[in-house]
TrEMBL record:
A Gene Ontology cellular-component term: plasma membrane
Domain of life: Bacteria
UniProt cross-references to InterPro entries, sorted A to Z: Diguanylate_Cyclase, GGDEF_dom, Nucleotide_cyclase, Rev_trsase/Diguanyl_cyclase
GGDEF domain mapped to chain residues: 230-367
Enzyme class: transferase
Protein name (database record): diguanylate cyclase
Gene Ontology annotations of biological process type: cell adhesion involved in single-species biofilm formation; negative regulation of bacterial-type flagellum-dependent cell motility
Originating species: Malaciobacter pacificus
CDD domains: GGDEF
UniProt GO MF annotations: diguanylate cyclase activity
Length: 370
């Protein structure tokens, strides 16, 4: 049963769905993780915006040193401060600037050059104010850029998240639809297969088991009886004067009568280990497992009476004006090792004896026989 489930198309499709869903979920989580990493990287870039600010702070601090010195005395040695200012300013000056920023920076650059040439205190102070202006400007720009990025990042992340959810839902709906269709087809095939199996062992007219299935069951009856230490019985039933019935009422009516008799047998032998067959024409067979002598005799009496109690008209019968049956039966004792062919022959002999003795009766062989 388990192997059948694991090999079924439905099980494989369910596994496929689980794998696809898990893959989509994993890709969503991984993608979100990569987005977070991207944010961290952009944050680093944001902090990189503070590098110009640091440079400008160094320039401002060195200008303050020059201003302090020039306030105290006219002649100052600020060669080292000038070198630092020149170096840091070159870095800042050569970084990317918009057109508007470039105009401002170039104006300040000229002021720096002029201040060192003229060596006047008020010019140093003026340049320092412009440097402080740049520090404030760069700080505001950095915060503004980060704020814009954070908003765009949130929108992008939400968009990606909902897109992934939508894809996941659509994929699930599509896969579910495919699975439903496959399951329907699978069920249809299973029903057709089951119907085919039933049809292959069932008589088309009476819906009893057919001769092919009888051969399979009956051939194994001795082995089953021996293995379980069961008494078993085989019963042969023949409708009396059925040829005359067909000649009188026609084959359509004959088929109706076959069905009625079959239904009587099927409704009577409806317990476990009881099998009813149409052997051919108007002949029926019954195989009973795990019984005893009294049960078999009671069954033979009952079915004989039930058929006559049905009062199916048969005006050309030579014994009654209704349909009747003749029966031959044999009981198999376990571990007597009599072949199925021998049992069939004995049951047929009993049926023949019932017909010879006047019909509408049964003959039964009990016990061991050779």
């Amino acid at each position: 049963m388990k192997n059948r489930i694991f090999k079924s198309t439905t099980f494989k499709l369910i596994v496929l769905v689980i794998v696809v869903v898990l893959s989509l979920i994993s890709s969503t989580l991984l993608f979100n993780n990569q987005i977070d990493k991207l944010k961290n990287q952009i944050d680093k870039l944001y902090f990189g915006n503070f590098v110009p600010i640091v440079k400008l702070r160094i320039i401002s601090d060195n200008y303050q040193k020059i201003i302090t010195c020039r306030t105290l005395k006219y002649f100052c040695d600020f060669k080292s401060e000038q070198d630092i200012i020149t170096q840091e300013w070159d870095y800042y000056f050569n970084t990317y600037k918009t057109d508007d920023e470039r105009i401002v920076v170039e104006a300040i650059n000229e002021q720096i050059i002029d201040a060192f040439k003229s060596n006047k205190l008020h010019k140093f102070k003026n340049v320092r104010k412009r440097i402080e202006f740049l520090v404030d400007y760069e700080t505001k720009v950095a915060f503004k850029q980060r704020k814009v990025f954070i908003e765009e990042y949130k929108q992008m992340k939400n968009s990606l998240f909902y897109s992934n959810v939508l894809i996941l839902v659509l994929a699930f709906v599509l896969i579910a639809y495919i699975i439903i269709q496959v399951i329907k087809k699978d069920n249809q095939l299973r029903i057709l297969n089951k119907k085919y199996k039933i049809d292959s062992i069932t008589d088309g007219l009476t819906k009893l088991y057919n001769r092919k299935y009888f051969d399979n069951i009956f051939d194994n009856m001795p082995f089953i009886a021996n293995a379980n230490n069961w008494q078993c019985a085989f019963i042969m039933i023949d409708i009396d004067f059925f040829k005359q019935y067909n000649d009188t009422y026609g084959h359509d009516k004959g088929d109706e009568t076959l069905i009625k008799v079959a239904n009587i047998l099927k409704s009577y032998f409806d317990r476990q280990y009881e099998f009813v067959f149409r052997l051919g024409g108007e002949e029926f067979g019954v195989v009973l497992f795990d019984i005893n002598d009294k049960i078999v005799e009671d069954c033979l009496k009952d079915i004989n009476k039930k058929v006559t109690d049905a009062k199916i008209e048969h005006k050309n019968s030579k014994i009654l004006d209704i349909v009747s049956i003749s029966i031959g039966a044999v009981i198999y004792e376990p571990n007597t090792y009599i072949s199925a062919n021998k049992l069939y022959k004995k049951a047929d002999e009993c049926l023949y004896a019932s017909k010879q003795n006047g019909r509408n009766q049964y003959n039964l062989i009990k016990g061991t026989f050779k």
